C-alpha cells in the first residue's frame, strides 16, 4: 500500500480544511520539543504562526533516554497545546507512545506523531492505523528505507492511508552531529513510495546552528514539509534546547526557505 505500485501519483494528505501535505507548498511544522507550560506554548504558537508555520508541534509524552529526565506534562500538556493551536489557527502534531493513549491523544491532535524509537512498535502502528487521523511516522535511527516503508505498511494495512514519512537522522559512525541527516531519503522515498516526506533538521543535526543549512537543503531536494524545534528560551528548555531555534531565527529561516522554494 505504501509502494509506488499501489499508487503511481503522489499522495496528498489533508489536515483539516486548508492544509495539505504533499501538495505544492512546503508545509512548516514548528514548536518546542516538549510542552512545558501554558505560557511557553501559546507564546511559541503565536511566533511560529506569524513566521508562516501551519502546524504546531509539542510533545506531551516524551520518549527520553533517561527515565529521570522530564517526561512531559501528559494530558495537561495536550490541553495547553490544543488551546494554543485553536487560539492561533494552527493544527496540532504530537507524539503518541503507547497504544493505550491513542484515544486520549486523538482528542487533541490533528496528526499523530510516531517517534523514531517506536517505528517498529507494531501494536502502536496498528492502533493508529485503526483511526482516521493522519500519522507522521518518524524513521527509526537504524532503519533501512524498506523497514521504514514496511512500518508505514503496518499503519496502512489497518485502513488508515494518511501516512507522512519523516526522516530525522540515522545513526552512523559520526558522532559530531547528534544523527546523520539523510537528505537523499527524499528522492529515494519518492522513488519507492507515493507518501509525502517531511524532514526534521532539528533531531537530524542536534545543533541549532546546523538547522538552517539542513532545512535549506531539505527544501532544495524536494521535501514536502519540515518539522523544526522552536523555543522562547532554548537555554532554559526542558529538552532539546541545544537544537531549538529562537523565534527570530525561525522567522529568518522561513523567509529564506520561501526564496529557495520559489527559485526552484
Ligand atoms: C521529537 O520529535 O521530539 C522526538 C522525540 O523525535 P524522534 O522520535 O525523531 O527522536
Ligand atoms: Mn525533541
From TrEMBL:
Key word DNA-binding present: no
Keywords on record: Transferase
Stretches assigned to the DAHP synthetase I/KDSA domain: 13-259
Residues of the full protein shown: 72 to 335 of 339
Species assigned in the record: Halothermothrix orenii (strain H 168 / OCM 544 / DSM 9562)
GO terms of biological process kind: aromatic amino acid family biosynthetic process
Claim: Transferase is one of the keywords in the record: yes
Leading EC class: transferase
EC number, UniProt record: 2.5.1.54
Molecular functions per Gene Ontology: 3-deoxy-7-phosphoheptulonate synthase activity; aldehyde-lyase activity
Name listed for the protein in its UniProt record: Phospho-2-dehydro-3-deoxyheptonate aldolase
Amino acid at each position: 500500500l505504501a509502494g509506488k505500485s499501489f499508487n503511481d501519483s503522489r499522495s496528498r494528505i489533508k489536515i483539516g480544511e486548508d492544509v495539505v501535505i504533499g501538495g505544492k507548498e512546503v508545509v512548516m511544522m514548528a514548536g518546542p520539543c516538549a510542552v512545558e507550560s501554558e505560557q511557553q506554548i501559546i507564546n511559541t504558537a503565536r511566533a511560529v504562526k506569524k513566521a508562516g508555520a501551519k502546524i504546531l508541534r509539542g510533545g506531551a509524552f516524551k520518549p527520553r533516554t533517561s527515565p529521570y529526565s522530564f517526561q512531559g506534562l501528559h494530558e495537561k500538556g495536550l490541553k495547553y497545546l490544543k488551546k494554543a493551536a485553536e487560539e492561533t489557527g494552527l493544527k496540532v502534531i504530537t507524539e503518541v507512545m503507547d497504544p493505550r493513549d491513542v484515544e486520549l491523544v486523538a482528542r487533541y491532535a490533528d496528526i499523530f506523531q510516531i517517534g523514531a524509537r517506536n517505528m517498529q512498535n507494531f501494536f502502536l502502528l496498528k492502533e493508529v492505523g485503526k483511526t482516521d487521523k493522519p500519522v507522521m511516522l518518524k524513521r527509526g535511527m537504524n532503519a533501512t528505507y524498506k523497514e521504514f516503508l514496511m512500518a508505514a505498511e503496518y499503519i496502512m494495512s489497518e485502513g488508515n492511508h494518511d501516512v507522512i514519512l519523516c526522516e530525522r537522522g540515522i545513526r552512523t559512525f559520526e558522532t559530531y552531529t547528534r544523527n546523520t541527516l539523510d537528505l537523499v531519503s527524499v528522492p529515494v522515498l519518492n522513488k519507492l513510495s507515493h507518501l509525502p516526506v517531511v524532514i526534521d533538521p532539528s533531531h537530524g543535526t542536534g545543533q541549532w546552528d546546523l538547522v538552517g543549512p539542513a532545512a535549506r537543503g531539505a527544501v532544495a531536494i524536494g521535501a514536502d514539509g519540515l518539522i523544526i524545534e522552536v523555543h522562547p528560551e532554548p537555554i532554559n528548555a526542558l529538552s532539546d534546547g541545544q537544537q531549538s531555534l529562537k523565534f527570530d531565527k525561525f522567522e529568518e529561516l522561513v523567509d529564506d526557505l520561501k526564496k529557495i522554494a520559489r527559485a526552484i
